[in-house]
TrEMBL record:
The chain crosses the membrane at residues 12-30, 36-58, 97-115, 121-143, 155-177, 197-221, 233-256, 276-297, 335-353, 359-383, 404-424, 436-457. InterPro entries: AA/rel_permease1 (IPR002293), APC_superfamily (IPR050367). This is Transporter. It is found in: Cell membrane.
Amino acid sequence: MIGTPNPKRVISVFVLAMLNVSVMASLRNLPLVAELGYTMIFFFIVVAALFLVPCALVSAELATGWTKSGGIYVWVREALGDRWGFFAIWMQWVHNVTWYPAILSFVAATLAYIINPELASSKVFILSIVLAVFWGVTFINYFGIETSARVSTTGVIAGTIIPGIFIIALAIAWLALGRPIEIPFKADKLLPDFSSLGSFVFMAGLFLSFGGLEVTAGYAGEVKNPQKNFPRAIISAAIITFALVMLGALSVAIVVPKEEISLVAGLIDAMKIYLGSYGLSWLLPFLAILLVLGAVAEVNSWIMGPIKALHTTSVHGNLPPFFQNLNKHGMPTHLLLFQAIIVTVAALIILFTPTVSTAYWILTALSAQMYLIMYVFMFIAAIRLRYTHPHIPRVYKIPHPHKGIWLVASIGILASLFAIFIGFVPPTSLDTGSLVQYVALLATGLGIMVAIPLIIYQFRKPSWVLEDSD
């Protein structure tokens, strides 16, 4: 089956908000953020002001002006042309190739605590779980958007919001009982060391934590009343995410020494300490299962947003006809299969890095850099569309005809470029090999991923265009 059937509008504002939360509010990022100590508060404020807010405002304006499925592809295509629209959606999609193994490493490490904690350091075990879960989630998405959205909504409530609130409550009880904490409060620890770039390294991961508000625009064709529901869902998701991630990260930092925080297993380590001290260790397996559900829901949410937008660009002739296939549920099965194969190959990096945490960070840094390139194009597109498409009604619109959009988008562009740069600085707390090797690995990976869509577009054929595409 080729083409795009008329979608049913089955996604409510609540479901859309939960999809946004499942995309952004990843508890697996808590150990990474906890590495920052109290400076996380400074970084949270900076990233929220310079990145999260601009993303939320620009995404709301673009999503309510261009409500057709396609998301970032449609926005950039309208502003900068088909080549750069394809490039932007490719970068949104391909950053997941390195991100999926990273988050699923968290799933594997969490499962290890249920089976045998020693398995958390086994690269073979981690890789096996990564591949088994990803292929399983891919199969789930063969059954349609409604089924996929139901899985994500249930998973984010049970596996992200509930465990997130629970660990925050455990930390509050810990403080109320006067238990010793690993990060005693000192005013001078609120600000990073501005003389050292190393103090800002994990900031790149924080940008990735708050990315994704625009991804559910790929569901626009299935959303009820998208003009009103997009802004409501985005605002609600941003507030929930900010609270869960910052307070959750502080909860981890309170009980796990900074030098012992594992980027993969740090959250479950904190849970183990809290529950053990309260005589509730028997709860750990149940919480581990919930955390796995939350992470799987996040992966599930990310799978279909970019893939549906990538399918939109395929029917415009930017990918071979093979990728235009849809099954009876309207799902791009060939693209899903292609993605699963690429993720399988990318996940092999787990076997060739010094530690699982090192692999996790390298995959996270590369993913963040690729994703932030897409954001630069999104912000540029928002500015240009104010001039080229002023007649398009936007239910939400950044105030002032031109000054407002220039200010908000420029802040987002500069913040994104800084985060891309800082990603090339290796963290001192991890064994990443030599500086030259680390930078070369990231630069090569980034260069290849940037070149591929431009090469594909250059050699596309007229016969690839679907006859009834616009």
